[in-house]
Amino acid sequence: MKKKCLLFILCVLFFNVIVSASTKKAGFLNVAASVTAITDDDEKAAAQWFTTTYGGDYIPVSEIGTIDLSQYGVIWIYADNESGYADAPDEIYAVADALNDYYKAGGNLLLSIYANNLLYEFGRTDMWPNVVGGAGPGAENPDVWYIATAYGTWDVTKTVFDRSTDPLFAGLTTESVTRDNGNQYTIIPLIGAGWKEDHNCFWTMDIADLSIPNDNPDKLLTWESTHNVTTLGTWGHVQDYFGSAVSRWKPTDVYKGTCITIGIGGYEWAIKNGTNPYQANVVRLTKNALDELKESVSGLNAVIELGMRLKFNQNLLSIDHNNQIGKVSLYNVNGSLLHVYNGENIREGVDVSTLSGGMYILKIFDKAGNPVAAHKFVK
Questions:
Q1: Which residues of the chain form CATH 2.60.40?
Q2: Which of 191, 262, 299, 360 is the S-S candidate for 377 at Cβ 3.0 to 4.6 Å?
Q3: Are strands 184-191 and 175-178 parallel, antiparallel or unpaired?
Q4: Which residues contact 297 (CB under 8 A, 6 or more apart)?
């Protein structure tokens, strides 16, 4: 009887957390009094999409201190300018303490371009973003600019870190490129030929007082382990271990929120002469990040323990495990049960092609039927 009561309580808590997370809002923070008053074309285009299509709230920086930030599951700060000042505005730094308190308490952040500097201001890292380029109006460029999602691809003897299947890239249009090691890897186009501002703001992955060569995999491994961050992408031509241009900064004991940073130069929301044929990728990348962060549940979206590993490839979902799983239940973010898979099927892989794109929760049970872990799944 006690065991049944405990299981019931765990289930109630599980669903309460999901419902609580699903009611969180998303906010876009900017120095302007309104969306129409934003002066930077990229910031304005992003804010217009965010408020009209995504359905988020616009937050003027003047309201920080008067509104309750805990109502937001994620706050997006996109700082861009053509003046040559490669940093967030002073008005954002003036409210950095309030934003840092929100982040430390479990609030999630999406930081874009020069807003990435805030992680240094917060103390989340002791390294400024040290790849800062093109801090001006830009120029014409005939190339397509990509995100490379695999590191260490120039030599067959090197360790490859391939992040192409990360949920952040789900649904994006991709291409394949053959690298110098003879294998093909995914690259993601962000901007086509035409005018490019080329505003970069990300990290080389060097550690303070420790410079590791770009051809050494320890560069990436040390950066990730030191900062509890997952490096997801870099400039499209890079084949070594350089550049944390798209990253997920995972929760720590001090900073309980998750932060996703996008600091790659191809990430632009407004094109000065014509249209960007890959704008849908810019939008989907942003939406994936916002969806993940808005629905993030502290304690439930951690990496699965007990040696289990979740994999998602195209429409096949699987969890590697050593016979610990009895069943896995799949829920939508509203807490509705959609499917139940047995442990053997989930290990071999289950077809999820009929699921609509979006966020789901996997609840994992052991052989005795006890809930042991939960994990987010983004399709």
A1: 301-378
A2: 360
A3: antiparallel
A4: 17, 18, 21, 361, 374, 376
- Please give the DSSP secondary-structure letter assigned to residue 56: P
Token digits for 190? Answer: 């962000």
- Please enumerate in sequence order all residues whose Cβ is within 8 A of that of 278, keeping only pairs 6 or more positions apart, or say none: 144, 173, 189, 190, 191, 192
Torsion of CA 356, 376, 164, 128, to 10 degrees: 130
| Model pLDDT, residue 313 | 65
> What is the chain's percent helix, strand, coil content, to nearest 5?
25, 30, 40
Which has the higher per-residue pLDDT, 34 or 314? Answer: 34
Residue range(s) of every CATH 3.40.50 domain in the chain: 25-294
Q: Judge contact between 363 and 374, C-beta under 8 A.
A: yes
* pLDDT at residue 301 in the model: 36
Q: Pick the range with the lowest mean pLDDT from 137-146, 279-288, 317-326, 345-354.
A: 317-326
Quote the distance between the C-alpha of residue 178 and its chain's center: 26
% of the chain with per-residue pLDDT over 90:
62
Tell me, which fold does domain 25-294 have in CATH?
Answer: Rossmann fold (3.40.50)
Q: What are phi and psi of 248, to 5 degrees?
A: -120, 115
Give the model's pLDDT for residue 312: 65
| Distance in angstroms (rounded) separating the CA atoms of residues 225 and 198 | 29
Amino acid at residue number 191: I
Using alpha carbons, select from 228, 261, 265, 269 the residue that is nearest to residue 244: 261
Q: pLDDT, tens digit, for every residue of 79-132? A: 998 888 889 999 999 999 999 999 999 999 999 999 999 999 999 999 999 888
Report the DSSP beta bridge partners of residue 139: 196
Q: Mean pLDDT, the chain, as a whole number?
A: 87
SS (H, E, C) 297-316: CCCCCCCCCCCCEEEEECCE
Range 301-378 has CATH code 2.60.40 = yes
Using only C-alpha atoms, what is the Rg of the chain? 21
Q: Is 126 exposed, middle or buried (0-12, 13-18, 19+ CB in 10 A)?
A: exposed
- Tokens 């989907």 locate to 284
